[in-house]
TrEMBL record:
This protein's UniProt keywords: Activator, Developmental protein, Differentiation, DNA-binding, Homeobox, Nucleus, Transcription, Transcription regulation
InterPro entries, per database record: HD (IPR001356), Homeobox_CS (IPR017970), Homeodomain-like_sf (IPR009057), KN_HD (IPR008422), PBX_PBC_dom (IPR005542), TALE_homeobox (IPR050224)
Protein name per UniProt: Pre-B-cell leukemia transcription factor 1
DNA-binding region: 232-294
Length: 429
DNA sequence: CCTAATGATTCACG
DNA sequence: CGTGAATCATTAGG
């Protein structure tokens, strides 16, 4: 970097020597006479310039004025304008036509959809709500995040609008400024109204391209915000105890066919104040995890089974209360499904323990109670120690139903993990 | 801090 | 499309 100055210094004598514009160092050897002549010329030129500048600007002004006031001037300008029109402008005009910008339209649409542009405040929150609803309908309990999202969105919106306004104002100002300027200049040079118009449209195009940048960055901001919001949605919250209980209750009381129908899901969702997709997620997870390691869920299963059994008993004893988590589905499809595959078990259950219930059972409750009872039975019947119970359960819970899985013999997996440790674990409340 | 639990997401399949 | 399976990412508990 500082090579350069040093070089210049060291070579100053030579380097500057031949420079024509610098009269001060003309004593460089060879070109003596020539240099003197040039010096003379330059001096003259400088002198002339000085005199011109010093001389009358006034005079020039006066001449201009005279020209402007000449009576032929308008006509002349008209002609010149025409010529201009025919040449320059026509050429420019040819390349001016542009297709309606698809990208701009896309941006506009998106901003409108996100509620950034479009009508005032109300639109914003409505759009935010719509966005939230669209993103899975998780409108139940993430109100904090939701309001956060809304606040951020309205912030973006505000910035967008102020910027847009600023741009518009600047555009208008600039346009009028240019128009005035051109009008001013039209006195001194040929400018047709058409040309002004064209200039204005050029200005507008420039500004709209700036606006497009604004829109683009706004879109980006919204996207980022949105993705963050979605990420926040991914931030899971454990369901509350009650919800888990309800879900588990349903799961274990429909263990033979733990596939809630759409209506059942809706009902569960309502009961647990979660969304239907959350219910689906829960059941998906539950099924796979239960199946994967039945032993681990044994205690839970027994617990819920016992509970629902008691519940069912009470219900059927009282006769009137249709409170148990049975659904049309469990009565219909699951029933037939189960009957065909494990009718024997069903019968055996009935014959063993079902007597007391059988009389009072309502059709809809049969399935769930069969599931329930099976658990109770297996619990009470074979519950000598953890290991045997474990080995006993794993086949029965699933294979007997022939149902919702293809018996991948999980006992080998479950027994080492849960067996020796005695089935206790925690009280799992 | 580590680990298990758990809700959500993704991908393949029928 | 609903599921199963694997996986991710966060939470809760030690």
């Amino acid at each position: 970097m500082d090579e350069q100055p040093r070089m210049m210094h060291s070579h100053a004598g030579v380097g500057m020597a031949g420079h024509p514009g610098l009269p001060q160092h003309m004593q460089e050897g060879t070109g003596g006479a020539d240099g003197d002549g040039r010096k003379q010329d330059i001096g003259d030129i400088l002198q002339q310039i000085m005199t011109i500048t010093d001389q009358s600007l006034d005079e020039a002004q006066a001449r201009k004025h005279a020209l402007n006031c000449h009576r032929m001037k308008p006509a002349l300008f008209n002609v010149l304008c025409e010529i201009k029109e025919k040449t320059v402008l026509s050429i420019r005009g040819a390349q001016e036509e542009e297709p309606p910008d698809a990208q701009l339209m896309r941006l506009d649409n998106m901003l409108l959809a996100e509620g950034v542009s479009g009508p005032e405040k109300g639109g914003g929150s409505a759009a935010a709500a719509a966005a939230a609803a669209a993103s899975g309908g998780a409108g139940a309990d993430n109100s904090a995040e939701h309001s956060d999202y809304r606040a951020k969105l309205s912030q973006i919106r505000q910035i967008y609008h102020t910027e847009l306004e600023k741009y518009e104002q600047a555009c208008n100002e600039f346009t009028t400024h240019v128009m005035n300027l051109l009008r001013e200049q039209s006195r001194t040079r040929p400018i047709s109204p058409k040309e002004i118009e064209r200039m204005v449209s050029i200005i507008h195009r420039k500004f709209s391209s700036i606006q497009m940048q604004l829109k683009q960055s706004t879109c980006e901001a919204v996207m980022i915000l949105r993705s963050r919001f979605l990420d926040a949605r991914r931030k899971r919250r454990n369901f509350n105890k009650q919800a888990t209980e309800i879900l588990n209750e349903y799961f274990y009381s429909h263990l033979s066919n733990p596939y809630p129908s759409e209506e059942a899901k809706e009902e569960l969702a309502k009961k647990c104040s979660i969304t239907v997709s959350q219910v689906s997620n829960w059941f998906g997870n539950k099924r796979i995890r239960y199946k994967k390691n039945i032993g681990k869920f044994q205690e839970e299963a027994n617990m819920y089974a016992a509970r629902t059994a008691v519940n069912a008993a009470n219900v059927s004893a009282h006769g009137s209360q249709a409170n148990s988590p049975s659904t049309p589905n469990s009565a219909g499809s699951a029933g037939s499904f189960n009957m065909s595959n494990s009718g024997d078990l069903f019968m055996s259950v009935q014959s063993m323990n079902g007597d007391s219930y059988q009389g009072a059972q309502v059709g809809a409750n049969v399935q769930s109670q069969v599931d329930t009872l099976r658990h109770v039975i297996s619990q009470t019947g074979g519950y000598s120690d953890g290991l045997t119970a474990n080995q006993m359960y794993s086949p029965q819970g699933i294979n007997a139903n022939g149902g919702w899985q293809d018996a991948t013999t999980p006992s080998s997996v479950t027994s080492p993990t849960e067996g020796p440790g005695s089935v206790h674990s925690d009280t799992s409340n």
